[in-house]
Amino acid sequence: MTEPVLAIRDLELTFGRWRRSKVLHGVSLHVRAGEKVALVGESGSGKSVTARLAMGLLQETGNVDVAGSIRVDGVEAAAGGRQIRRLRGRRVAMIFQDPTSALNPAFRIRGQFREVLRTAEPGLSDREADARAEAALAEVSIPDPARALNSYAFQLSGGMNQRVMIAMALANRPSLLIADEPGTALDVTVQAQTLELMRDLAATRGTAVLLISHNLGVVREFADRVYVIYRGRIVEHARTAQLFSDPRHPYTRALLAAIPKISGGGLPDLPERSPDFENPRIVHEGCAEPWELRP
Amino acid sequence: MDRSLPLARLFRLASSKAWATFFANPLSVLGLIIVLVILVLSVFAGVLTPYPEHVGPVGDFSAMNAPPDGAYWFGTDTMGRDLLTRIVYGYQLALIMAAVVLSIATPVGVVVGLVAGYKGGWVDYALMRITDIFLAVPPLVLAMAIMGFLQPTLMNGMLAITAMWWPWYARLVYNVTRAETQEGYVLAAETVGASTAHIVFREILPNCMPSIVTKMTLDVGFVILMASSLSFLGLGVQPPTPDLGSMVAEGAKYMPSSWWLTVWPAVAILVVVLGFNLLGDGLREAFEAEG
Amino acid sequence: MSEPILEFDNLGKTFEADGSRVVALDDVSLAFERRGCHAIVGESGSGKTTLANLVLGLIRPTGGGIRFNGVPLPGERGIEHRRAIQLVQQNPLSALNPRRSVGASVRLPLDVHGIGTSSERPARVAALLEEVGLEAAHARRSPRGLSGGQRQRVAIARALACEPELIVLDEPTSALDVLVQARVLQLLEHLRRERGLTYLFITHDLAVVRAVATTVSVFQRGRLVESGGVEEIFAAPRNDYTRQLIGAVPVVTEAEARLRETIRAGAPPTPGAG
């Protein structure tokens, strides 16, 4: 089997110089080309910092201590540095919670799009860049790409901005797309459209997608495989069908029980925290990490 | 349970993280030390200075214009008065002036800013346009204009500086208030039925305190600088009261031979302004760390 | 049937600024039973926030009116309404003053409305904190040191301090984690029963509506499109938009997925699908 596009192994992260606080205690996960994998957890579980480490963003702030390995598209990214920075925007892209705040309100979409395309191809002409931008916007079903390029972010709806963000993220045909709670700042219907779009892209282009989410419902509909993270540790790893039909870790079970259901039934009496939630990791059949398979 | 002064509550509720940040920065600590030393010197000037009698017009006629030595560490002026003593008393006067100016300018500015920021509408418009008019006049020019048709006395000097200082507090507090008014706790107080006075002074004001305290600390230095500038121009405190600005101006006539007459008072101004600036920056950093 | 606690009569609100008009709420008539948990559902721009602001008396209607206990709002009994209708906001961090202690925030309504004597109030604050599942000692803490769930409990205690009849819950759990959300929803449910409260529950989360609400009113672009008992609407939504909203909810169980399919298809679900 080929190497996964993203392979995170025994990742540990500690913040702070004086008062050190450890937020990741050995996280391992992988995503292969064309695969849709979800990392699901509550706020403070370490899911977003994992994404930021994989993008090489957190390492740049200093003040962090990283151990373990992150291989992105064959490049070691745990220490950050120039190599991973060069991948960013080209081989690796990220989309965020609130698309409107991720776009610069002072510039038209056109200029921002050109800049994105030029990170991959510095000498690209304006005309060529605009042609590619229009094609990219058409691909995410934006009805009038030329008009969208001439707009400012605030002139477009939340759903349109989300599409523009995705078009930008995918313009350079990345091999890995990391989506951190995409569209949770938007309405349910827009969120559903965003996921639909990402699903298509994984299927047609073989992009590896890592979805960071707190919403198990979204995960169930989107992902092929799921990692459940709790307080800096992966507690359960399974194929999506396995996880939802047969959740085994006490934490996963509690989460699933606590979610209100449209089919009714009251809310169960569950603790917000429990020592059981810290039980060791449970890996379902056929879900071992690639390096664990070899002796 | 909630009757203490906003300032006391500010310090109680300021997290230990804020203080840790403050003391982690050596420059902030240096600022604090300078300010404390100057405060102690000013308060106990009568005991700590070698020649407290030299505050008046008369000095030691046997040692006029003497360079620094063992008896007069900073030298003496043309009247034979100890420069060190006069600088310490200059500090005392400068601090009193700063305290008086800020204790008038700050409350006026704070109330204007709070009311305009919270009430909005025509109240906002009227109050902030008046503030803008004051802000549009260069401060030194305004002070000189006031001093020009009033007697150049200590009281008028403080009046002039106060008149040009309050609008900065109005502007600062206005901006903070505008932002805080959007916060949920203001809406919560409104839905509970709290009075405007309660919302403005007990809910919003405590959240303005970090900005106000920081600005006041920085401003002590600037007020001293401004007062010294007026004195230097002959518009401030009149002799024989020891004033740092007048001492620099007076000493400048004897440069470079009697350098100590100018250099020590100038250094004294530099040190006090630097001290309050370092302290103010340290406080700002600490409050920001608190988040 | 008893008199409704809250009634909207052809309620409308139009915002006008710089010559442009936005109809935020258009001709809404509804009545809410006492002791119910009434969900107001819609996406952004549906007018649900405008509705909350109208009920709280923060803005005035431009058409029709609101009656609370049969009395038009806002009435001469202004301060009395202020006490009787309370609010719990979405973001519990912003809703508590970071520079006032938890106790001071909960005590404020007692001082404003003269509830109890001055010397009794600390004990009342302690009792309120315990009622929402916190400890009396939390009164001296700063909200900074509390978790999101604890902060929301403080906000609930503050609303209860007013001894309200109606509480407007504006997305009270959407900023919270799932396990915390479940606990807070349980607390709200318990308080409603114990204290005979009425809730106006503003939310976009239909699964939460199904779990806690007794009635639901669906809004789309300022108009009421469907209203009724929760059981009936989730069993057979009549309006296309309601079907669309329920059909877009991400679900986690097979039973839910089946129910959602039948709702998307528009046919009444087979019995037992829930």
Question: Helices, strands, pairings?
Answer:
The complex is a heterotrimer of chains A (295), B (291) and C (274).
Chain A: E1 6-15, E2 21-31, E3 36-40, H1 47-54, E4 64-72, E5 75-76, H2 82-87, E6 92-95, H3 99-102, H4 109-120, H5 126-139, H6 145-149, H7 158-171, E7 176-180, H8 188-205, E8 208-213, H9 216-222, E9 225-230, E10 233-239, H10 240-245, H11 250-258, E11 282-283, H12 290-293
Parallel strand pairs in A: 3-8, 3-9, 6-7, 7-8, 10-11
Antiparallel strand pairs in A: 1-2, 1-4, 4-5, 9-10
Helix pairs in contact in A: 4-5, 4-7, 5-7, 7-8
Chain B: H1 6-13, H2 16-24, H3 26-43, H4 45-48, H5 83-119, H6 121-136, H7 139-149, H8 154-181, H9 184-192, H10 196-232, H11 244-252, H12 260-290
Chain C: E1 6-17, E2 20-32, E3 37-41, H1 48-55, E4 63-68, E5 71-73, H2 78-84, E6 85-88, H3 92-95, H4 102-113, H5 121-131, H6 148-161, E7 166-170, H7 178-195, E8 198-203, H8 206-212, E9 215-220, E10 223-229, H9 230-235, H10 240-247, H11 254-265
Parallel strand pairs in C: 3-8, 3-9, 6-7, 7-8
Antiparallel strand pairs in C: 1-2, 1-4, 4-5, 9-10
GO molecular function, one term (chain C): ATP binding
Domain ABC transporter (chain C): 6-246
InterPro entries (chain C): AAA+_ATPase, ABC_transp_ATP-bind, ABC_transporter-like_ATP-bd, ABC_transporter-like_CS, P-loop_NTPase
